Amino acid sequence: MKKSIILMTALVFMVTAVATIQAAALKCTVEKVEGNVVTMDCGDKAATLSAGTEVKVKTAKAKSAAIEGC
């Protein structure tokens, strides 16, 4: 009984953590760049952000040429 309660508690914690991480992800497109200021369009999800909020930005990975052998 005690092991099943611990297992259920751990499962609920993991599901909550995954949902929080996924909810924080936004996909935006860069509209313009002026010096060190970047303007991005996040669509209707922009309402979830507020002025002064720190965000992490990942750039799209460029596809490299295939490596060919001898």
**How far apart, in Å, are the first and last alpha carbons?**
62 Å
Low-confidence stretches: none
Number of strands: 2
Largest sheet: 2 strands, antiparallel
Q: Give the radius of gyration.
A: 20 Å
User: Structural class per helix/strand content?
Assistant: alpha+beta
Strand order of the largest sheet: 1-2
Content of β-strand: 15-25%
Report the total helices.
1
Q: Determine the mean pLDDT.
A: 79
Which geometry do the CA atoms define?
Answer: flat
> What portion of residues is helical?
25-40%
Oligomer: single chain
- Spell out the helices and strands N to C: HEE
List keywords for this structure.
single chain, 70 residues, alpha+beta, two-stranded antiparallel ribbon, 1 helix, 31% helix
Describe the protein:
The protein is of the alpha+beta class. It has one helix and two strands; from the N terminus they run αββ. The protein has one helix at 2-23, and strands at 29-34, 37-41. It has a two-stranded antiparallel ribbon with strand order 1-2.
Give a short synopsis of this structure:
The protein is α+β, with helices and mostly antiparallel strands. The chain has one helix and two strands; from the N terminus they run αββ.
List the helices and strands and how they pair.
Elements: H1 2-23, E1 29-34, E2 37-41
Antiparallel strand pairs: 1-2
